[in-house]
Amino acid sequence: MTKAEPSLSEQQQIRKSKLEQLRELDINPYPYEYDVTHTSKDILENEETLIAGEPEGAERVSVAGRVMTRRIMGKASFFTLQDSGGIIQIYIRRDDVGTEEYNTVFKKLTDIGDFIGIRGFVFKTRTGETTIHAEEFEFLGKTLRPIPTPKEVETEEGETKTFDAFSDKEMRYRQRYVDLIVNPDVKDAFIKRTHMVQSMREFMNERGYLEVETPILQPIYGGASARPFKTHLNALDIDLYLRIANELYLKRLIVGGFDGVYEFSKDFRNEGLSRFHNPEFTQVELYVAWKDYNWMMSFMENMIEHVALKLHGSTSVTVGEHEIDFKAPWPRIPMYEAIEKETGHDLSGKSESEIRNIAKDLHIEVDKSMGKGKLIDEIFGETVEPKLIQPTFITDYPVEMSPLAKKHRSKEGLVERFEAICNGKEIANAFTELNDPVDQRERFEEQARLRAGGDEEAMTVDEDFLRAIEYGMPPTAGIGIGIDRLAMIMTDSDSIRDVLFFPQMKPEG
């Protein structure tokens, strides 16, 4: 054994020594390719066909994956192999694969977690377990760190206890690659998330809307109220911002003549982390000309009903202790009405100071930088939003809260906006889009005043966007749907980190 490296654990030192021994045997521990004909799932789903004529007439299969368990029994052994399709048992004999391959490479130099390839035929053991009888064995990848392997131990009291399980939440988020290896059920949530996005994309494509891409690096950030991440472009010596939304660019495309455009976008907001917030998140934004927010409500509830049916075969989805039903239509409740029902306070027509006092009476923390819109948002977020479990449209927001939404056609002081709330959190935000350039400039200037007063999340004036809508934008409905939060609901996940492969974390140590 070579001299131990101080930074390596005993297990790592042993594995590194085995790596060197493989090379001494002229075995490449990291070969370039391997011909895989079947996954474990393929074999288990087609076992009857594959077993027919075993062994002489049986179809030969070639599989590759990680060694997860081993039972060494002299001249023959059993082990399990895990691949992308699941786990399957392998039977291996010295007489089939060769003395050196079996006695040295397999028994002495192979560890749990190593990648190997097997060629052979499928059969069933006396206990009825579908198994591959190995005729050829090939080493495909040496692991230098041990894979966490849970062990079940029966106590004197007859209870079964599990040790060494990779269950610590923080470790699982930090080392998602290990989490996926030893907790394969974790994959299910991410597979469902992908299918969810695919079904939404199909729904929009079938209606003729065009998927597009817009800039992530933007000279002026806009489309939402949030603090941005800032960077610098050396080539032009200018500051740029990671987008907080893609709304204003998609509207430029509506100005340019597209009837319907959408984008699944990575957006970035320099805000806190929580169960429901990650600084980097995904949303889909859709803008459709000639439509309004009433049309968009119907569109969204039908699309999410479609998603639930695709993923679960039902409009009902179990989320924690709740059964959430996405069957359309969803309730539609004006914002002031929802607040009054929960608090007894009618905020319509109230001044900023009156609303500030109501917030204080409700023991809601506010500060001097908050304008009327932010105060109302805080009251709604504290008193109403957490109680909305079934999907609900909250409609008709105060104009102060919505600088990009069109004024309500019949209700003074309000705009045509809705948020979709589900499981106590917003999952979508939508407007009848503001297309009056004079009104839009006034709204931007009011945001600039709020910003000067200390509101770091207020919007900035985007002169190019104003120039775009001065060329004329048709009546338009727009929506942004939070993919991460919707995925949490569709996969019954308690934290946004459970639906992100690599969530943002504090630095280790």
Automatic annotation (TrEMBL):
<protein>
    <recommendedName>
        <fullName>Lysine--tRNA ligase</fullName>
        <ecNumber>6.1.1.6</ecNumber>
    </recommendedName>
</protein>
<dbReference type="Pfam" id="PF01336">
    <property type="entry name" value="tRNA_anti-codon"/>
</dbReference>
<dbReference type="InterPro" id="IPR002313">
    <property type="entry name" value="Lys-tRNA-ligase_II"/>
</dbReference>
<dbReference type="InterPro" id="IPR012340">
    <property type="entry name" value="NA-bd_OB-fold"/>
</dbReference>
<feature type="binding site">
    <location>
        <position position="426"/>
    </location>
    <ligand>
        <name>Mg(2+) 2</name>
    </ligand>
</feature>
<dbReference type="GO" id="GO:0000049">
    <property type="term" value="F:tRNA binding"/>
</dbReference>
<dbReference type="GO" id="GO:0000287">
    <property type="term" value="F:magnesium ion binding"/>
</dbReference>
<comment type="subunit">
    <text>Homodimer.</text>
</comment>
<keyword id="KW-0460">Magnesium</keyword>
<dbReference type="GO" id="GO:0005524">
    <property type="term" value="F:ATP binding"/>
</dbReference>
<dbReference type="Pfam" id="PF00152">
    <property type="entry name" value="tRNA-synt_2"/>
</dbReference>
<keyword id="KW-0436">Ligase</keyword>
<keyword id="KW-0067">ATP-binding</keyword>
<dbReference type="InterPro" id="IPR004365">
    <property type="entry name" value="NA-bd_OB_tRNA"/>
</dbReference>
<keyword id="KW-0648">Protein biosynthesis</keyword>
<dbReference type="GO" id="GO:0006430">
    <property type="term" value="P:lysyl-tRNA aminoacylation"/>
</dbReference>
<dbReference type="InterPro" id="IPR045864">
    <property type="entry name" value="aa-tRNA-synth_II/BPL/LPL"/>
</dbReference>
<dbReference type="InterPro" id="IPR018149">
    <property type="entry name" value="Lys-tRNA-synth_II_C"/>
</dbReference>
<keyword id="KW-0030">Aminoacyl-tRNA synthetase</keyword>
<feature type="binding site">
    <location>
        <position position="426"/>
    </location>
    <ligand>
        <name>Mg(2+) 1</name>
    </ligand>
</feature>
<keyword id="KW-0479">Metal-binding</keyword>
<dbReference type="InterPro" id="IPR004364">
    <property type="entry name" value="Aa-tRNA-synt_II"/>
</dbReference>
<feature type="binding site">
    <location>
        <position position="419"/>
    </location>
    <ligand>
        <name>Mg(2+) 1</name>
    </ligand>
</feature>
<keyword id="KW-0963">Cytoplasm</keyword>
<comment type="similarity">
    <text>Belongs to the class-II aminoacyl-tRNA synthetase family.</text>
</comment>
<dbReference type="InterPro" id="IPR044136">
    <property type="entry name" value="Lys-tRNA-ligase_II_N"/>
</dbReference>
<dbReference type="GO" id="GO:0005829">
    <property type="term" value="C:cytosol"/>
</dbReference>
<dbReference type="InterPro" id="IPR006195">
    <property type="entry name" value="aa-tRNA-synth_II"/>
</dbReference>
<dbReference type="GO" id="GO:0004824">
    <property type="term" value="F:lysine-tRNA ligase activity"/>
</dbReference>
<keyword id="KW-0547">Nucleotide-binding</keyword>
<feature type="domain" description="Aminoacyl-transfer RNA synthetases class-II family profile">
    <location>
        <begin position="193"/>
        <end position="507"/>
    </location>
</feature>
